[in-house]
Amino acid sequence: MKGTSRVCDVVVLGAGPAGENLADRTSAAGLTSVIVENELLGGECSFWACEPSKALLRPVVARADARRVPGLRRAAEGPLDVPAVLAHRDEMAAHWQDDDQVDWLRSVSVDLVRGHGRLDGPRQVVVDTADGGTVRLTARHAVGVATGTITAFPDLPGLEQVHPWTNRDATAARHVPERLAVVGGGVVAVEMATAWQALGSRVTVLVRGHRGLRSRMEPFAGEMVADALRAAGADLRFDTSVTEVVREGGAGSPVRITLSDGGSLVADEILFATGRAPHTADIGLETVGLTPGDWLAVDDSYRVTDVPDGWLYAVGDVNHRALMTHQGKYQARIAGAVIGARAKGEPLDDGRWGAHASTADSAATPQVVFSEPEVTSVGLTTREAERTGHRVDVVDYDIGRVAGAAQYADGYRGKARVLIDAGRGTVVGVTFVGPGTQELLYSATVAITSEMHVDRLWHAVPAFPTISEVWLRVLETYRDRAGRTT
Fold it and tell me: 159-274 maps to which CATH number?
């Protein structure tokens, strides 16, 4: 089919949350924006990650909470209604239809070209469409790459023939496997182990290291989640690697898994949650002097640093700064404003916390693990503070001692850790572990981004009796330990 060509101000490759936000913000800046996508608009988050995974986990967490509330225990003792849970998951994933996303793009005046897009030299994008045609897009000002990541598989004999689960299979599965092996100890591994164990699978988690949730998390977070998984019936094996996998009876038969200690186990499905790789192998990076399959290094305005003339930007997971949806959207908002300002010849407000600054990437990246118990964190961990030579006071508090926690759940187990800059007296890192703590995370993020001194924070009074009273208890602990009079 004959090709066509178009000229616009901005072209965005990838219509996940980061790409959608980048196109929206450049359009809002008065630029003509075109977004290119060969799958569903909304990307991984809407259809195979955030939305469906949280739909699977919400009934698990709600039942766990109910079991700790007097008067509800008996009602919460039965098994989950699996068909209802999966039906709710389907609803939250919009039944894998992106009509609403298409309507939204139209509402913000962003054009869509469906097909596989790839760079073809400076400011050039060629799209192979489903009908066999091609569309050449020329960008006057910028091209943004927001193609995200894909599962990073280890190099294992026979892995391809086994057809292992990825996050996509785990969040979209139509049945509950009797036995599920989960390889990995990060967020995807922990969340999916939590969900499928509660839905009826016998889950075995195989972690190469000595604990889970190692990345950007305090050690006690992984330990508390591991304890809860074991209590739920999961088999956790640390310092254990997979050396071989095989389906001895072909498709649909059980998977035999050989382990690094010489042992083996059998599962009906095996989920690999061993990390992510940049989705950049087939987007034409070689045509602009970059290496296909690499992460895209960017400066603090999200320009790709190794491309001359500063026309190529990368936002979201693909730049490897923070592999989280909300952070990709933040980056896209910043980058969209930057592209708009540069197109108009306006100066950038790129000072710390400025409108064109990427400060939150390093100082205040929030994260939630929707496990049971929940894990929330923002800013520095103790290990990161030590590694960077940042002198901090570490304040720990047992959340279960807070009156609001006792109201929330009988026998509440949780822990708070707050890091306070030893010189400036400002909050620089927070970790909460425990039921309901996800709703504490924004207050922690505000405390860090506002660089609030603890003397000022003392006057932010938490309501009684709520879990947020933990802030007061942390500050009291800090005051008493330091001999302060505030």
Answer: 3.50.50.60
